[in-house]
Amino acid sequence: MPRMTSETGLVERWRSLLTSYNQVACDLERALHDGHDLTMGEFETLDRLVDANCEDRRMQDLAADMYLSQSALSRTVARLEKSGLVARSLCEADRRGVFVKVTEVGLQVHAEARTTQRATLAKHLSADPARL
Amino acid sequence: MPRMTSETGLVERWRSLLTSYNQVACDLERALHDGHDLTMGEFETLDRLVDANCEDRRMQDLAADMYLSQSALSRTVARLEKSGLVARSLCEADRRGVFVKVTEVGLQVHAEARTTQRATLAKHLSADPARL
DNA sequence: GAACACTAGATGCACGTGCATTGAATGTCC
DNA sequence: GGACATTCAATGCACGTGCATCTAGTGTTC
């Protein structure tokens, strides 16, 4: 069973993934920070919240479709709240839970930041879909 | 000019990249840490050094084909040296430069860790080349 | 050869992260 | 209903990172 091919391809694909990700992430992080004083994690969190708009979301649900760990998310939301971009409120039904909602300011900042994000993504991902 | 399609695809591809990367990276990080007391960055550094074996490599050259920043690389190599996996020696030709070489122990640890890496990569990347 | 710009790599610092733990609320079992 | 396990979110802690800066060696210009 000649599995050399698959093993080699594996590492190559991993390195490709590693490189792609880091290039985009690095640039995006800087662009968001410089232009909007946001972390990539903060923007992504905001982005998820806006996607599911009108609806309060529990921390848990947020964490579910994100890559952030529970503690990271907790602190990220704390930072966003401190900046006035989201609001936390406790869930009456289950008083352990916490609801998170985007504020007006949060919506504005998100809209602006999204422009930056799109531009950065386009710069890196538009021309070469082969090397995703 | 209907660019909606491309913009939408852009974000989708980014989220896909984000998710793929974080799943693999997270798992790999843990596996390497638990099994070999290595950071992902440390392993990748070691990996690059082994690839270019027999040859001393300057920090600069190492940094060139890696995603790590200059300061991160500097500290990573410092940690690897402290653990006895690599050795630094100064470059006589240009005494600002520093050579980095894998030690015997480093080779062994790398070989062991590579097994773990391959296994982890296989788990995540083997079945679904479509969603690289 | 003295002054100045530049480069290689190390380091102080602030910050975001994961892990483990904590505190509070809920569920369960008898 | 009281004791115990479980869940949600927050937090102490150690650690790796990037940015800016620093030190030392090199190149250049006069």
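The two ends of chain A are 29 Å apart (CA to CA).
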